Structures are given as structure tokens and as C-alpha cells.
Amino acid sequence: MPSARLVAVAVVGSAALLTGAATVGRYLVIRRRTAGMVRLADMIPVHSAHWREQQKAKGEVLYVAIGDSAAQGIGASKPGRSYVGLLARSIRRETGRTVRVVNLSQSGARLREALEHLMPRLAKLQPDVVTVSIGANDIASFDPERFERELRELYSALPPAAIVADLPSFYLGESERRVRIANEVVRRVAAELSLEVAPLHRTTLGRTAARTALRDVAADFFHPNDRGYAVWASAFEPLVLRAAQALDPGTPSTRS
């Protein structure tokens, strides 16, 4: 049998090896995440240009999206694989009509930026379908009173048939606690204004944290990837398709 000294040396050596491996692992994760953040930042002008071109197109159904970088599709392999792109495709398939997408989203937008920069543009449009997913960027400096005040102002300016989403799950820690408080506000204000809520939190929470980290997020470990955006789209799709099916079946005019 090995002596007690050899056992002690082995234990210390194993602990040092594990500590070293953990340190290297953390370093590699940080390096990968940093590189991923740079790559995703490079996507912002590309995706913005895509949606500007889409806005110029003609379409029988006008779909307007209000949101932040997730609505832009940052993290997807291409803008069409964002949740907005996937929903537009579903509307085309379900209605047999052409769809014009006006993506009124802004990377990094909080509720205040949406109110100041996005909602005035919505007021000039006559959309058939509207989706709203905003508020996740308010979580870092979360103030419940301010959140409710700004959310209520934004929701009050929406068309009656707009579909709003609650915030996605942040899975763990203080951020998730804040998200749950924010989502209580989202559901209460939406109910008061008779707006339907897409269950984004429940849908994303249904993905375990480990599985999401490995499969559903982009290289920055925050934004969804193609698979993650398909999950987001699934939270909206039943309500979006119901709204699309309710459109006048007659020959529509091109919307502006």
C-alpha cells in the first residue's frame, strides 16, 4: 500500500492539476466569449442593412417588429434565420401572401430608446401584424417603477392586435430574479390593455441551462443562435399565425 506521504502528495498533485485545468478552462471560455462578442458586433451593420432593404420591398401583409438585438437577429447565421425572419416565413406559408417586413429594432435598445426612436416610426405605419420583444436590456440596471412606467407608455401606443412577449429566461442568479419581477409587470400591464402575451420566458426556460449553453446560444454565450431563434419563434408563432389568419381574405392592397 502507498505510504501516507505518497497519498498526500498524490492528493495535492491532483488538486493542483484540477485547479490548473479549471483555470485554463475559464481562460478558454473567456477568450472564446470575447472573440464571439467581436464577431457578433461585426454582424450589427450587416443585419441592419438587410432589414433596411427588406423594408423597401412590397408586400400584401405588413409585419412590423419592435425590439432590440434579438429582433435584429444578432447571433443567427443570417438575418432570415432570426425569429423575425422565421415568423415572416410562417406568415407567408400560412396566408399564401407576400409579406413586407419592417424591422423597427435597435441593438442595445432599452424601453426608453424604443419609446424615443422606434415608436414614432411605428405610428406612421398601418401594420397587419406587430410583435414586440423589448426590456431585456433594462435588466442590468433594473428599476421596477421605471420599468413599469416606460413599459406602460410603450404598450399604450401599440395597435390593439399587437403581440407582446415577456422577457426570456436568464436561467440563474440575480438577473433571473429581476426577469421574473419584470415579467409580472409585463403580464399585468398587457392584461390591463388587452394585449396578448407570447410566452417567451416559459418557452426559453423549458430549455435546460446546460443544453442552452451548448446548443442554443451564439459565440458570445448570450444571444441566441439559429437553433435558439427557432425556439424564440415558437413562442410567438401560434399568436402570430392566428393574427395572420384573421386578416381580410379579400385581395389586399400593398401596405405602407
From TrEMBL:
Residue span(s) of domain SGNH hydrolase-type esterase: 65-231
Coiled-coil ranges per UniProt: none
* MF term (GO), any: phosphatidylcholine lysophospholipase activity
Q: Where are the transmembrane segments?
A: none
Give the top-rank taxon of the lineage listed in the UniProt record for this protein.
Bacteria
* PANTHER family the record matches: SGNH HYDROLASE-TYPE ESTERASE DOMAIN-CONTAINING PROTEIN, THIOESTERASE 1/PROTEASE 1/LYSOPHOSPHOLIPASE L1
Q: What is this protein called?
A: SGNH hydrolase-type esterase domain-containing protein
Lineage summary: Bacteria, Bacillati, Actinomycetota, Actinomycetes, Micrococcales
